[in-house]
Amino acid sequence: MSLSVRVAVPSDASRIAELSGVLGYPVDPHVMAERLTRLLPRDDSAVFVAVDGDRIVGWIHCAEHELLEVGRQCEILGLVIDTSARLGGAGRALVAAAEHWAAVRGLTQMSVRSNVVRVESHPFYERLGYTRVKTQHSYRKPL
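Above: the chain's sequence. Below: its structure in token form.
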């Protein structure tokens, strides 16, 4: 695998949408293109893709948040690696890119939420130095 990581660009929308389906969040490529168009210019978030040759094999989305209880931090909002590329270093490289982005911004803490059903991701984050700090329920309400 000849892996590299770069900032996502709008033309990546179809492949990012496809990989979102792997994560369990199917997205129409046109909708993903609209989301990327809004997100990519923002200063408080970043989207990186892992590329093997000319094929995107994963993506990560991270953002800076300032919370009253913990201050400024960077949260990994989404990370997905194509099933054919898992265990090849793409996830590690994408997390490293997000951590570097956060450090350059002066942030001193990373956070990530991982669904309890994604049991394969829990040891991955722990190997990268992340510590489980709580278990919680997640609620949504349509507006």
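The two ends are 44 Å apart (CA to CA).
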